[in-house]
Amino acid sequence: MRDQLRRNGVAESVIDDAVLVLSELLSNACKHGRPLGDALAGDGDVRAAWQVDAGGRLLVEVTDGGGPTRPAPATPSVTAHGGRGLNIITALADDWGVRDDARGEVTVWVVVHDDVHDPDAGHRRDDFASRISAPAVSEIPGLDFADAFDDLG
User: Which among 106, 107, 118, 103 has a CA at the least distance from the CA of 60?
Assistant: First the structure.
């Protein structure tokens, strides 16, 4: 995939972002979606695709058989083991969305492109960490580590 994208003129930073986006989309499809095709016959799967448009924007898509809920960013707790995937995608993407079809298949699509060639897009990388990370411990009300250490004696 990387070599094909490079040959299509996609910047290395966009390829790196697209690989992370694809990983998140595939993880979500495997965890939350039903497989495409006849899973009982052993041919259930998900479908991944990418395309570079004339403007150099990279479109990444993952399609599965749909799930019990619609893909939406979550607000996980500080200690949650998951729930940050679509927030990571939102932080890296120019745009993303969900497309349904008549067969019940669901496609999550993400557009990523080079910040260097789009001055309005640079904010995504600048504040990426602040948009996906938990708040600092000092900002969580009710936590007082001094009391906990006093109890240790």
Answer: 107
What pLDDT, on the 0 to 100 scale, is given for residue 138? 59
Return the pLDDT at 122: 45
Q: Whole-model pTM?
A: 0.72
Residue boundaries of the structural domains of the chain = 2-152
Q: Are 65 and 105 in contact (CB under 8 A)?
A: yes
Mean pLDDT by 10 residues, the chain (153 residues): 84 89 93 78 79 86 92 86 88 92 92 64 51 55 56 54
Contact 102, 93 (CB under 8 A): no
Helices 12-32 and 85-92: angle between axes, nearest 10 degrees: 150
Give the chain's radius of gyration (CA, Å): 19
**Which residues are registered as beta bridge partners of 96?**
110
- The set of residues, in sequence order, having a beta carbon less than 8 Å from that of 85 and lying 6+ positions away, is 24, 25, 27, 28
* Residue 105 CB coordination number (10 Å): 17
The string of DSSP codes covering 86-99 is HHHHHHH-SEEEEE
Fold for the domain defined by 2-152: Heat Shock Protein 90 (3.30.565)
Q: Does the CA dihedral 99-32-34-94 come out positive or negative?
A: positive
